[in-house]
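User: Please predict the structure of the protein below. I'd like the answer in structure-token form so I can feed it into my own downstream comparison script.

Assistant: Understood. Taking the following sequence of 348 residues as input:
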Amino acid sequence: MSVVNEKKSTFDKENVLNWMMNNAIFLVLIGLLIIIVSVSPDFISLRNFRNILSQASTRIIMALGVGGIIVAKGTDLSLGRQVGLAAVVSASLLQASDYAYKMYPNLPKLNIFMMAMIIFLVMAITGLIGLTNGFIVAKLKVDPFIATLGMMVIVYGVNSIYFDRPPYGAQPIGGLDPRFTKFAQGAFNIGGFKIPFLVIYAALVTFAIWVLWNKTKFGKNIFAIGGNQEAAIVSGVNVVKYLLLVYMLGGILYGLGGTLEAARIGTATNNTGNMYELDAISACIVGGLSFSGGIGTVGGIVTGVLIFQVIAYGLSFIGVNPYLQFIIKGLIIITAVAIDSRKYIKKK
């Protein structure tokens, strides 16, 4: 009897230890949140909740873009620079007609239709960049890390050349058309409770990606490619086609996210979007996606982004040194990837 009890006790301890290891990142984040609330109980407020949701909304759109790539066992380090390019291009074309320092002084006041066309143009540009990434990975067989690292540098160079143009040179692009900024900064007022437009956009994109992942052939095939590319090929999946599509979709969502980010903050520079790729990728991993491919949910991505945003906003709220925040964020990323690697090794 004692032997059975001893075995049961050992088994329970192993289960508890495994659970703690697998959920260590959530325990750390919950611990950080408890510290934040302890330091400043005012952090728990409707206003802060709304601000967090607004800031997280553009990040959710970007993370959903790279999430599909991670599911297909890839990555995209050019995300942040594509976001920056989208922000700069959209801001430069959507400045107020009476702004004294317009990048294009002779550009007339645009109607709503033309403004929408510019947003779609920006999404098409970043979609083309994503398609190029997919081509390099799928056809030229370059490792996704190297391919997108190279594209990250290229896009930053192109964006900097575009940004540093006469007559005003490399100065922040401001004076955005009020209709453009309202597109991101506005809110629905329902019974005194304001729902930011950005939250609505993020919810619509989230729903669309959920349908794409769970109800279409596209979703089924990217999970198959990520799970076992050789088996997917044998099953008749056109791997090149779906890798091209998933990288292109990522680019389109970065373009949308970058445009909304420019409208949200009301300005853009060539450094807008810097390091956003790390935030998005780490949020995906925290949310349950795996670098081993073929694993992940849309809900997990949204949860990962919200967790990171709550922590980032909370640390700023209580006055933590911004440089120290980088260290904390780096430790979270390392922990998340270490846990993911441990799960993969155990699975193997």
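That's the full token string. The radius of gyration is 22 Å.
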